[in-house]
UniProtKB/TrEMBL annotation:
Entry protein name: tRNA pseudouridine synthase A
GO biological process: tRNA pseudouridine synthesis
Subunit field text: Homodimer.
Gene3D superfamilies assigned to the protein according to its UniProt record, in alphabetical order: Pseudouridine synthase I, catalytic domain, C-terminal subdomain (3.30.70.660), Pseudouridine synthase I, catalytic domain, N-terminal subdomain (3.30.70.580)
Keyword Transferase carried by entry: no
A GO molecular-function annotation: tRNA pseudouridine(38-40) synthase activity
Record PANTHER family: PSEUDOURIDYLATE SYNTHASE (PTHR11142), TRNA PSEUDOURIDINE SYNTHASE-LIKE 1 (PTHR11142:SF0)
Organism: Candidatus Criblamydia sequanensis CRIB-18
Domain Pseudouridine synthase I TruA alpha/beta: 9-101, 143-247
Domain of life: Bacteria
Amino acid sequence: MTKYKLILSYDGTNYSGWQVQPNGVSIQEKLEEAFLILLKEKVNVIGSGRTDAGVHALNQVAHFTFDGPLDCRKITFALNGLLPLDIRIQALLKADPDFHAQHSAKGKCYYYYLNLDSVKSPFFGPFSWHISRNLDLSAMKAAAKILVGTHDFTSFSNQQHLGACKKDPIRTLFRLDFVDWAYGIRLEFEGDGFLYKMVRNIVGTLQEVGTGKLKVEDIPLILEAKDRQRAGHAAPPQGLFLAYVIY
């Protein structure tokens, strides 16, 4: 069996997330359907991790195995001909036998787009969170600095007693940067891993700091509480992108 690595982009607006599930159409499902048509056999595509419903990816990574050589260039072209236009294969490469899209990853980077224009753009609405009221960006940046480093992020996980959070809620956030873009601010999260909805919950919490509902001094208390109810609301999914995976 030969192992292959996929790098793909997708607009998650119309999907229930990455992983195959019974209650909606997923990115993984569409990929496996395309492979079945193309290769005439079922292929199990394993992603670097799940993205939630409505979340996008610039460079998601996945792998699969296939019994036989594949012409990567031709397969890439054929897959993009079969897939919906909101899912695109950027690259298909032969991978080392021990490569695993999820287990080999050393970290990930997510982008979250805040649209701060007074009028919501008709072009970037599906890809950002439009906030029309003024935000105290200085306070948000001060709060973000507290979150950088190694912490127990239980308060920012929607699954406190399940899965990864139950096993180990300690994560290291390498950086949380505020980057200007044409319509507002892009928050860049780079870390060794992220709990379920951790990025969206942090963004929602920072937004509440920006509006004065929470204070910068509340952030250490929220971390210490290890209680999701103490943190802010979850930011909507459409502003979130998986930017890249670190190997």
